[in-house]
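Hi everyone, sorry if this is the wrong subforum. Our group has a chain we'd like a structural model of before ordering constructs, and none of us has done structure prediction before. Sequence below.
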Amino acid sequence: MKLSQYQPKPFEKLKKERENQGINLPDFSPTPKKKPNLSFLWVIGIFFALFLLSMVYVVYDESGKPDITPERKAALERDLEKLENAEQYVAIASKDGLYPCLSCKNGQDSIFLMRYEVWKYGVTMNKEAGRYRNTLKKMGLEYDPQFRGALQQCLKQEKIKIYYYPTLPENLARVEQLLRPPGNPQDR
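Answer:
Right subforum, don't worry. Here is the predicted structure as C-alpha cells:
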C-alpha cells in the first residue's frame, strides 16, 4: 500500500476495533464544563455589605439634620472624660540597683538608683493599669501619681518636674549629674 492511498479511519471506528481486540483507548471526547460555584462570592459580598453598613458615621434626625451616631457620641464622651482626668506620675526605684538610663551621657546605658529615687516623670490618661500594667514592677519601679487634673495641667506639671530634676538632692550627689531623670530621654 502506497502512503498516498492511506486514508485514516475515523476515531470512533478505530476505537471500536481496538475495544474488540481488548485495547482501551483514552477518551478524547470533550467534557461538559461545570458552572462555577458562586456561593463563595455571595458570602464575600454579604460580609462586604455588612462592613460598609458598620461604617455609617452620620445619622439624620426627623428634621433631616445630620448628627454623629450614638456609638461615636459615647466614644467622644469617654475621650473627653479622659482628657479631664489625666494623671502626672513619677516612677521611682523600689529597691537599690541598676536601672536603664535613657538620658545618660557617654553611651552609659544604666545607672545606679537608690530606693525611692526618681526614674521617670510622665503623664497618662489611662492610670497605671492602662499605661504600664505590670511593666514597672518587672523593672523594679513603683508608680506614684503626683497630680490629677486636666491633661494640659498634667503636662505642665510633668514639664516643670523634668526641668527641675537637676536640682534634686539625689542628682546633685552624683559625680556626673543628669539633665533629666534616667527614664526621660527628652524634655518632652
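For your construct planning: Residues 37 and 43 are 12 Å apart (CA to CA). DSSP finds seven helices and seven strands in the chain.
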